[in-house]
Amino acid sequence: MTKLIPLALIALGVYFWLRARRKTSAFVERTGSRSAAKAAAELGFLPAGELDTSHSAAPDPRAEEIRARARSGDWQAAADYLADAGRDWQERYRRGSLLQDEAAADDTWLLAWRTARPEDAGAAFVHAGALISVAADIRGAKQAKYTTQEQFAGFHRMMAQAREACHEAQALAGDDPCPYIAEISCALGLGYDHETFRVLWAEVMERDAHHLAAHTSALQYWCRKWRGSHELAAGFAREAAAKGSPGQLLTLLPLYAAFEQETAEDDDPDVYYKSPELVAAVDACLIDVAAADAGDRRVVMVRHLLAWLLYWQDRYPEAVEQFRLIDGYIDCAPWTYSGDPVKRYLAARDYSAERVTTAARG
Fold first, then answer.
1. Which of 7, 40, 54, 220 is the most exposed place for a label (fewest CB within 10 A)?
2. d(C-alpha 84, C-alpha 50), whole Å
3. Residue 280 and residue 237: Cα distance in Å, rounded?
4. Quick one: what percent of the chain has pLDDT higher than 70?
């Protein structure tokens, strides 16, 4: 999972949510300090000009190679890449998402794959996800008042096709949860009611009850900005975290639900994130991250949100530790939930660095 929420789902979320939210006074007071930038440099952090706003983590060299080969028409390389994930459903979903993005830009190689292997479950899954991405592109990322009726009509038409493609992929998938997870984006875009969504979610859980990308996608459905409420999202997140084991990273969910609520309500994060419940949730997530496999590419996404909450909880040494492990790549929540991701990232990172260096000097 290169992102906690699939790329198409992130794009869809932007449609119905005002990204450029008001700045709280607490955050404004912490920005723009030259001494903070100097402290960050002293700790070895990268300057603003070297931050990568196109990736949330260092690119996977093999994935980049496969994408290039797909663009050249080598669908067999893409098919093998997806198949090599085996029954690691988390990894299969991550690889499929990468291929879907590539197919949304140019599906020539995917069409060749589908023609050569019409019953290939992997090709069907990639096709469904690519249609979701195309729908997102048609809709665009602007607020509804700046979106034309033609865009809305095209979006819904393409999402309906994507839903049909998801169902086709599901019929071929057996116990693979990935095409069911892909349909969660359709649930958001087409407005599934709660009963219909719960039926879909039961299919996912039957196949992989601890799939992180599935849970982060479902959390979006239960958020108020989509089809739920703050209370439903928080309840879903608590239940998910409770059923996870250390290293499965499901303790991310309460943090994400809290972040979505604070963002939507524009609460003062300097107060909101210091609640005993959220401090305990961050502690649990830190334990979870420490127990995760060192090669698990999902971990870095969790660290982004951990860094944000630790910063607001005034736990600066712990925040700096997370910033050291994510520095350089910022195309990820919470930074992307801002009109200026670089500014948001630098403000939190550099302020934390300044507080750490000041404390070290006594």
1. 54
2. 34
3. 14
4. 89
**CB-based contact 353:40 (threshold 8 Å):** yes
User: What would the two tokens of residue 228 be?
Assistant: 């739920």
Cα(35)–Cα(90) distance, rounded to whole angstroms?
42
- Alpha helix stretches (DSSP H) within the chain: 7-15, 25-29, 34-42, 61-71, 75-83, 89-105, 108-116, 121-139, 149-173, 178-190, 194-207, 212-222, 230-243, 252-265, 269-272, 276-291, 299-312, 316-326, 341-361
pLDDT in tens, 304-313: 999 999 999 9
Helix, strand or coil for residue 145?
A: helix
Give the span between the Cα atoms of 71 and 216, in whole angstroms. Answer: 30
**CB of 335 closer than 8 Å to CB of 301:** no
For 355, the 3-state DSSP assignment is helix
As given in the structure block, the two tokens for residue 312 are 């607001």
Tokens of 165: 């493609």
Q: What percent of the chain has pLDDT over 90?
A: 81
Q: Whole-prediction pTM value?
A: 0.90
3-state secondary structure of 212: helix
Name the burial class of residue 321, with classes exposed (0-12), middle (13-18) and buried (19+) by CB atoms within 10 angstroms of its CB. middle
CB-side neighbour CA atoms (13 Å) of 287 = 11
- 257: its two tokens: 């639900």
Give the number of other CB atoms < 10 A from CB of residue 71: 14
Q: How far apart are CA 108 and CA 116, in angstroms?
A: 13
